[in-house]
Fold this protein.
Amino acid sequence: MKAALIYKKENKPNLYQKIFLKNYFESMKKEKKCVNISFFMYGLPVNKKMSGRMIERWITYLKSENITHVLLADDVEQEKILLEKIKENFQMILGNSIINHKFFDILRKCAAKKNLEMNQSTVVLVTDRPKVAEALIMKLYRHVKRIRVETKKQESFLPLINYFMNEYGLYISVEKEERKKDELVVMVDENKEKEGCDLDISLSAFYHNRVYFKINKKESSILSYVKLHQAALEFLMIEKYGSFLESAARRFTGEFNVRIIKIENID
């Protein structure tokens, strides 16, 4: 696996300039981890507008370098044609593992914005996937007043309803209900109507909700090019541990004292 941060490089006509991330090889020696993962930074020239042909050359070059995962710097994200081409050809680093691990803390921040207390609130999970709902319910059920699921596949949730009732004495409603002001609505699946959603944690959540963090790691090359949102944090996490797993997110957020600063809706 090769991961790359792509950023704009002022007044540099060399399209294919690349720089290794600071201290990468030193960290490889010390940690003896991530041996199959390389991290690069690629600078795009901004002294001329990129044509479709130039974008194709850029994509071809990245493929020749065996790049598989990409994080875009904030300014490159504004280049819509380039963004779409990169999304078509590479796996975007979007921070989903960070959002999943910090789900409860993020939701608590959303509750505070609505002047709600978590232990007095109902959380609505909008999903058709019982297994995903089960994992989220396990993170929530001790801390909220009620949990219900909005789904078009009520029958597929019957085993989940029975499980939580038998094991925890907890009733999970999947009946259609009108949404209330004291509810926190979480969009879990892709391709769902996002209107009225308080938090999006779907695979494309990065394009709807940006969660910004503060950490005690100071010496990172990428912070000159990208704000410390969930995707940037995930990039740093896989740089250090070589993993997208929640166990890596747990270790990273603990070691670097990761704290949520704000949540921004960018729709």
User: Anything to note?
Assistant: Residues 11-36 have pLDDT under 50 and may be disordered. The radius of gyration is 21 Å. The first helix runs from residue 24 to 31. Residues 79 and 113 are 32 Å apart (CA to CA).
